[in-house]
Amino acid sequence: MTILPFEPEPDELVCVVGPTASGKTELAIRICEEIGGEIIGADSVQIYRHFDIGSGKPTAEEQGRARHHLVDVQDPRDPLDAARFAGMADATVAEVRSRGRVPIVCGGAFLWVKALVWGLARAPAADEQVRLSIRRDAERLGVAAVHARLAEVDPQTAGRLSPNDLVRIERALEVWELTGQTLSALHAEHRAQPPRHRARFVAVRWKREELDERISLRAQGWLEGGWIDEVKRLVEMGLGETRPMGSVGYRQVREHVEGRLSREDLHVQIERATRIFARRQRTWVRDVPTSWIDPTWLR
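The structure assignment produced for this chain is given below.
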């Protein structure tokens, strides 16, 4: 039985996206089996070595069904950003196509997927001195005052940011102070540019309560499958302060390992954080035209 409600064009990049625990890996594998594809991972934790259980890294059986790229390839001490990922993914797309295979991008790091498909807005590199100045103003005057300052120079960006979102407020003010241009203007300029790749976005459509149940069962299964011991080993390896350790789930397990979160509360906290993350991912997917797959097609 076919699972595709569409026929991919030869130059289209099929991107399997959607919230965590929605079955992206299984969908991508099924697509590969149907159209002769290979998977290019776009997961900001699976790409790192040693972070296996809590990232849902594809199993040996899954990797036997479809060839995977950009999974388990990066040292956690050398974190990737979206720009570096896009460069690696571009090279992998070309490699897969050179063999007559179809590249299937799969992952929940939507910023990375967007960087691959559309590129990144032209913006200055971070300036620690400027950021430190803004941060000190936030500490002295309060985050609301810094947000009000952003509203004066870039009301469009300020309007879409929470008054408590210091990280993004800080970045928008940093761009203004370094360039004299607003972040919203840079984004508008970027949106006017043609995409780097023709892309078709695909996701599995679950009811919210069904996805919540999948999140809960997955977390419980990972905890029973050795996730806590994995994090203990990672900390012993000196990887406790790396970027992937700060991801949803790993952060909570590390708090438990360090005695800051009880075993009784661990599953609840992982589940809560994952559901919040899944809501953000659903919002990202709503921003692009998406072909939705009924989950019964994957059973």
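Interim note for the steering committee: The radius of gyration is 20 Å. Residues 263-286 form the longest helix (24 residues).
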